[in-house]
Write a structure and sequence with these properties.
Elements lengths: L5 E4 L3 H12 L4 E3 L6 E5 L3 H11 L8 E3 L6 H4 E2 L2 H10 L4 E7 L5 H4 L4 E5 L4 H10 L3 E2 L14 H8 L5 E4 L10 E6 L2 E6 L5 H8 L3 E2 L27 E5 L2 H9 L5 E6 L11 E5 L4 H16 L6 E5 L7 H11 L4 E3 L1
Parallel strand pairs: 1-9, 2-9, 4-7, 6-10, 11-12, 13-16, 13-17, 14-15, 14-16
Antiparallel strand pairs: 2-3, 3-8, 4-8, 5-6, 6-7, 10-11
Helix pairs in contact: 1-6, 10-11
């Protein structure tokens, strides 16, 4: 089925009302959140959630996150625990997704047949207004075609999903730029499944010891706890390689390359990369800027059809750096080059 996708810039209350109506009637609306744009459908409507998988070309064993207006709403679709409330008090609304045991009312199409459900309470005012207006929990993956970088601008959503969904609400660039942090709760025990805007350090300060799923830092060939972590992701059409070494070695390595390449670089690098296709992540020490710009930068590289490879430095793994590292490592298929 094809649609005339309506793109609404800076949606007012009337546009959000219409978007809520589309969701109640089983249609799909893309909307901004503080992390990335989401592709929303009514989480209680199995037909609507099937349409989400079809629009993205997403494998149906990869479950969706359910977006709620308040943490209290979690009790209606999941079994909450004391640790959930501790996390909710500190980090919700915000870029945190928590996996809990699900109740019966959440269809299997949302959870990919798992007995758990992923819950998130976004802080973006348009996301919040849309959830309130629709009156239903909104199942929403990132609003990209499966395998592409998540969208941080409405233009990215339009590029991937035009004619496949009813409406796109354009709220400008996403503040964080990487998808939410995902944690799984087993009683009091917390496992970090996907790093994001709420950092491992933030979680540890709030809750003590946190386990880190091996798929966060390394190639993982088994069945990861977040099914989505097994798919190749975030990748432009050409391979991405991550270089480890000093700046001097980095530039000398680039000088010696013979096939056309692009570079994901820092602002300070630009004078040394004249004539090379580049996409800038921000100043070297500004991890938040790297997070904000990474996905747009990967999409920019995709537009240079002549380059054969994209080089970037392997990021540090502290604070927001861990989330940037995880997404870049996945884009690179964990291809690191020690210089
Ligand atoms: O920031 C975000 O989280 C964005 C915005 C739109 O909220 N959403 C997002 O959704 O990134 P998506 O579908 O692209 O990523 C959801 C991840 C997938 O890796 C999926 O496997 C995992 O969450 N997930 C969902 N439900 C799960 C569950 N019950 N158990 C384990 N992992 C789950
Ligand atoms: Mg996604």
């Amino acid at each position: 089925m094809t649609f005339k996708t309506e793109l609404v810039t800076n949606p007012d209350a009337r546009a959000i009302h219409r978007a809520g109506e589309i969701l109640r009637q089983g249609g799909l609306v893309a909307f901004p959140t503080e992390t990335v744009y989401g592709l929303g459908g009514n989480a209680f409507d199995p037909e609507a959630t099937k349409k989400i998988y079809a629009a993205k070309g997403r494998p149906s064993d990869n479950p969706l996150i359910v977006h709620l207006e308040t943490p209290q709403d979690a009790e209606t679709i999941a079994y909450t625990t004391p640790m959930f409330w501790r996390l909710a008090a500190r980090f919700m609304p915000g870029p945190l997704t928590v996996i809990l045991k699900k109740r019966e009312n959440i269809p299997d199409t949302v959870t990919g047949g798992l007995d758990s459900v992923a819950i998130r309470v976004p802080s973006h005012p348009i996301a919040r207004a849309l959830i309130a207006e629709s009156g239903v929990p909104i199942a929403a993956p990132s609003a990209n075609v499966s395998g592409k970088p998540s969208p941080t601008l409405a233009m990215h959503v339009y590029h991937d999903l035009n004619t496949r969904i009813e409406m796109i609400l354009d709220g400008g660039p996403c503040e964080i730029g990487l998808e939410s942090t995902i944690v799984k709760l087993d009683g009091e025990h917390i496992t970090l499944l996907r790093p994001g805007g709420i950092t491992l350090e933030d979680l540890t300060a709030c809750c003590g010891k946190i386990d880190v799923d091996p798929a966060v830092l390394e190639r993982f060939d088994g069945i990861p706890q977040a099914p989505g972590m097994k798919y190749r992701h975030y990748a432009p059409h050409m391979p991405v390689k991550l270089l480890i070494g000093t700046d001097a070695k980095f530039f000398s390595f680039l000088e010696n390359q013979t096939e056309p390449f692009g570079v994901l670089c820092y602002t300070e690098d630009l004078p040394y990369l004249r004539g090379v296709p580049t996409a800038v992540l921000g100043e070297a020490s500004d991890f938040a800027a790297h997070a904000r710009h990474l996905f747009a930068a990967l999409r920019e590289m995709d537009a240079y059809s002549h380059i054969r490879v994209v080089y970037a430095r392997a990021p540090k793994t502290e604070h927001l750096g861990l989330a940037v590292y995880n997404r870049l490592a996945k884009a690179a298929g964990f291809a690191f080059v020690e210089l």
